[in-house]
Amino acid sequence: MTAPVFRLALVTILVAAPGAATAEVPEPEGYRLENYRAPVPAALHGAKVIGTDEAEAIWRGHSASFVDVLPRPPRPRDLPAGTLWRDKPRANIPGSIWLPDTGYGELASSMAGYFAKGLDKASHGDRTRMLVLYCLADCWMSWNAAKRALALGYSNVAWYPEGTDGWQAALLPLQDSTPEPRPDQ
Predict the structure, then answer these.
(1) Arithmetic mean of pLDDT, 37-56
(2) What Pfam families does this protein's entry cite (predicted)?
(3) Please, are residues 48 and 157 in contact by the beta-carbon 8 Å criterion?
């Protein structure tokens, strides 16, 4: 009687870090209008693209305003009286201003005004102050928002494509955040 033969197969699994490009993504001419959670380009014409180490140095030096554009579902208007509503918390880079829903490819005029007003607040009215725009890794919303900030005349725009995913992976501090009130609130 022969002994059974066991074969051990070695399998290599490659795991890409958040924000790691698997293929080069071209920079589009306009804004991204759909499929916002997808690999992003390595560049944004007119903006400085920064990684986590540089974002941390800028943050520690207090030399920029950080702006998060992660979407936030609004509280439904027609909830029956007494219904509990629990807003999903957002852990953010400390000191950031959160302007939810401003990274979509197309914005209603009220949201475009909300974004412009929020950037004015974040920059203290100084269009030369560095603005660091972010969301999550592989999120086109921050790319769109940084492009929109450039179109509004901000001259010192940095795009942080790793967003809070990269920040958290580096074990940097996060804090619960409250968004700036929306135009309809």
Answers:
(1) 97
(2) Rhodanese
(3) yes
